[in-house]
Amino acid sequence: MIVLAAMMASMTVADMRHQRRVLIVAAPSAADARRVAQDAALAGMTKDLADRDVTVVALTGDTVRGAADTAAALRERWRLPKAAFGVVLVGKDGHAALRRSEPIDASTLVATIDAMPMRRAGQR
């Protein structure tokens, strides 16, 4: 699992297309209450995220963890203002499948992914 995380961190979100779903969590700071809540929700989902081919990309201020993109590139491409919290689930097709300005709870995230056509096809 550590090798996979390191490999994904060396790829851009665009490079992950067709291989991974990407959950971009953007916050102005690591202390942002919504960021803390989102991190807590994700902490209990390690197996669910792995089973669903999800890479989490954390965008905090000008720092990116989980992908090789610059913060500016991610903010521009996914319309994530630097001063605001936002979460974007990018499907394997490269399109935003879910966008929120508040944390996404585990059940909503799992249900959204499980309803995606590529996920349903992979379960057959």
Task: Give a verbal description of the structure.
The chain is α+β, with helices and mostly antiparallel strands. It has one domain: Glutaredoxin (3-Layer(aba) Sandwich), CATH 3.40.30. Helices cover 39% and strands 22% of the residues. The chain is built from six helices and five strands, in the order αβααββαββαα. It has a five-stranded mixed sheet, with helices on both faces. β2 and β3 form a beta hairpin. It is globular. It starts with a helix and ends with a helix. The mean pLDDT is 90.
Features:
about 120 residues, alpha+beta, Glutaredoxin, 5-stranded mixed sheet, 6 helices, 5 strands, globular
Structural class: alpha+beta
Shape: globular
Task: Provide the spatial order of strands within the biggest beta sheet.
Answer: 3-2-1-4-5
Q: Strand portion, in percent?
A: 15-25%
Give the name of the CATH superfamily. Glutaredoxin
Rg calculated over all Cα atoms: 13 Å
State the helix count. 6
Compact overview of the structure:
With 124 residues, the protein is α+β, with helices and mostly antiparallel strands.
What is the fold's blueprint, element by element?
Elements: H1 2-9, E1 21-27, H2 33-43, H3 46-51, E2 54-60, E3 63-65, H4 71-77, E4 86-90, E5 96-100, H5 106-114, H6 117-123
Parallel strand pairs: 1-2
Antiparallel strand pairs: 1-4, 2-3, 4-5
